[in-house]
Amino acid sequence: MSFRLARQSKILKPSEYKSIFNNGNMTRGEYWQVMAIKTSTTKAKLGLAISKKVHHLAIERNRFKRIARETFRLQQAEFKNWEFVVMARHAKTANNVTIAQDLLMLLTKVATK
Fold it and tell me: What is the tally of structural domains in the chain?
């Protein structure tokens, strides 16, 4: 049994990212910026855009990616018909639980718009 985020749950194509950036709803939190678009598919999808300009060290970028993937994977059933692109923001350091709670709050906020 694998607990990985399935390939079908990831945004992989540049055209998918482009449509979300052009047509999506955006919301910002302390640690994250989330763009989302409602789709006709029944499966939620996640795309990550963690920039070197925001987090210079690879260890920090990878940490944010891990937190985003795990938070999304655990709550994925609640976000049917939505595609999200998650971006990290400049912020002070915090523990993983605080960062994950901020992302979950933003995902639910943008999905209820």
Answer: 1
Q: Which two tokens stand for residue 78?
A: 């609640």
Q: What is the pLDDT of residues 2-51, one digit of tens each?
A: 678 889 999 999 999 999 999 999 999 999 999 999 998 888 999 999 99
Helix (H, G, I), strand (E, B) or coil at 89: coil
Phi, psi of 5, deg, nearest 5: -75, 120
* Residue 81: inside a domain: yes
Are the CB atoms for 66 and 45 separated by under 8 Å? no
The pTM of this model reads 0.91
Q: How far is CA 106 from the centre of its chain?
A: 9
Map residue 22 onto helix, strand or coil: helix
Facing residues of 82 across strands? 38
